[in-house]
Amino acid sequence: MIILASGSPRRKELLHKLFDDFLIETGEVEEFHNAATPAELAIKNAKLKAESVAAKHPNDIVIGADTIVVLEGKIFGKPDGGCGACDMLKTLSGKKHEVITGLAVVKGGKTFTASEVTEVFFGEMTDEEIAEYVATDEPLDKSGSYALQGGAAKFIEKINGDWANVVGLPVYRLGKLLKSAGISKG
After folding, report:
1. Can you spell out the DSSP letters for 107-118?
2. Are 162 and 154 in contact, with CB atoms under 8 Å apart?
3. Which residues are identified as catalytic?
4. Angle (nearest 5°) at CA 162 between 118 and 153
5. Which helix (DSSP H) or strand (DSSP E) does residue 75 occupy?
6. Which distant-in-sequence residues (6+ apart) come within 8 Å of 88 by Cβ?
7. If you ran DSSP here, which 8-state letter would residue 92 be given?
8. Is the pLDDT of residue 185 over 80?
9. What residues are paired with 46 via a beta bridge?
10. For 121-139, what is the mean pLDDT?
C-alpha cells in the first residue's frame, strides 16, 4: 500500500495524478530548522515525516514531502499569524524567490530522496493588496504565505520550473524517484 505522510489536501490531489489508491497518515514530528543548504533542509524534513510513518508500516511504501520558500538564502516557512504573512509577502513583493520541495520515499527499510527547485517571480504588491489577500486566511498555513493555486495567482508574474512543486508536490520528480526506488506508478 502507498501511504502519503502529509495531511495537505493539495498534496493529496496531486498524488492522485500518480496513484488511484493510497492512504494518508501524518506522524507527530518536530521538524528540523537547520541544514547546510535549503534543499538539504527540505529533504531532511521530508525524510523525517516519511520515516516516522514508515516505522509503523514497515511493509508499505511511504511518501514524505516538505516545501519551503527561499529568498536570498533566507527560508520562509509558514507565517506566524496575519502580521507574519503580511511581512513575508511584503518581502517577496517584486522579487524572484525559489520554492524547494524535498521528497522522501521509504520502501523496505530504505529511504530514497530527491528535491525540486522552482523559481517564482512576484510582481509588485501594494500594502492594500497584501492586506486583502491575508484577510482571506488562505496564506496562514502556507510556506511563504501564499498559494499559487489560490488568490496569490494574481501576484505571480512568471514561474520557471514545475508549477506542481509550488503547490507542494512535484509530480514529475516524484515519479522519477519512485521509478528509481523500483516502484511503478498506479
Report:
1. ETTEEEEEEEEE
2. no
3. 66
4. 80
5. strand 74-76
6. 76, 79, 139, 144, 145
7. H
8. no
9. none
10. 97
pLDDT of the residue at 27: 83
Are 24 and 12 in contact, with CB atoms under 8 Å apart? yes
Q: What's phi and psi for 84, nearest 5 deg?
A: -65, -40
Which residues, including other chains, have CB under 8 Å from residue 186's CB and lie 6 or more apart? 2, 18, 19, 20, 21
For residues 107 and 161, give the distance between their C-alpha atoms in angstroms, rounded to a whole number: 28
**Measured between alpha carbons, how far is 170 from 102 in angstroms, rounded to an integer?**
9
- pLDDT over 70 percentage in the chain: 99
Q: pLDDT tens digits for 29-53?
A: 989 899 999 999 999 999 999 999 9
Q: Is 150 exposed, middle or buried (0-12, 13-18, 19+ CB in 10 A)?
A: middle
The percent of residues above 90 in pLDDT, for the chain, comes to 91
Q: What's the pLDDT at 186?
A: 57
Q: Residue 26 has which C-alpha cell? A: 501524518
**What mean pLDDT comes out for the span 157-172?**
96
CA-CA distance, 28 to 60, in Å (whole number)?
18
